[in-house]
Write a structure and sequence with these properties.
Blueprint (H helix, E strand, L loop, with lengths): L3 H16 L10 E3 L2 E2 H18 L12 H14 L5 H10 L5 H16 L6 E4 L3 E4 H23 L7 H17 L3 H8 L13
Antiparallel strand pairs: 1-2, 3-4
């Protein structure tokens, strides 16, 4: 049975496998936007380190009811300036990968999966001290691992395929974020071949 834990696990393991194929001379090359590839990988690793951190922060109240709402709130916080420093945190995470980034990524996958254990649902405090249930938060981390794995593969010129369950979950989440943002009709008409999405359209 596919669960939020199994798709997160598959995304994390797929990301780790991809990192193993990055050429040694590509790490300092282009990644995404202002990030070099090392920074992009470091930023992606944060999809696991945040889970490790937040599992130690139980929440008394659930403030965010879904992964789509989480992204809607995050987008609004970035737009308002309440969230800043994303680029620099990615660079810091890239530097933290150390001299053997592949080994660092492998170790982080092991750590987060051990920390999750059986993946029992529970309320945790996530970024911004918002309470979320683990099973609502994990899909946001699967989404980050999946999307940025594709970014990494594109930047390094590598062949990479997401596990089908990961691709299905993240695609559905992208559509739900669009609905949350009021762009559901645009996405539906585009996916059904009725219209094109505007240039630069994004749900995140």
């Amino acid at each position: 049975m596919t669960t939020t834990l199994t798709t997160f696990t598959a995304a994390a393991q797929g990301f780790s496998s991809l990192v193993h194929t990055i050429p040694s001379d590509a790490w300092d090359g282009p990644g995404l936007g202002e990030w070099d590839l090392r920074s992009l990988v470091g930023h992606t690793v944060r999809a696991m380190t945040t889970v490790v951190q937040y599992l130690d922060r139980p929440a008394a109240v659930v403030d965010v009811d879904s992964a789509a709402e989480y992204y809607s709130r995050a987008r609004a916080a970035v737009a308002s300036g309440a969230i800043t420093g994303i680029v620099e945190r990615g660079r810091e995470a890239g530097r933290a990968l150390g001299p053997d980034p592949v080994a660092t990524v492998d170790a982080q996958v092991v750590e987060v999966l051990e920390k999750l254990d059986d993946g029992a649902d529970r309320p945790i405090l996530v970024a911004g001290d918002m309470g979320m249930r683990l099973h609502d938060y994990l899909p946001t981390r699967t989404f980050e691992l999946a999307v940025h794995s594709l970014d990494i593969a594109a930047a390094a010129g590598l062949a990479f395929e997401l596990p089908p369950a990961v691709l299905a979950e993240t695609t559905v989440l992208a559509a739900r974020i669009a609905v949350e943002l009021g762009s559901g009709v645009q996405v539906l008409t585009a996916l059904s071949g009725r219209a094109d999405l505007p240039s630069g359209f994004s749900v995140v």
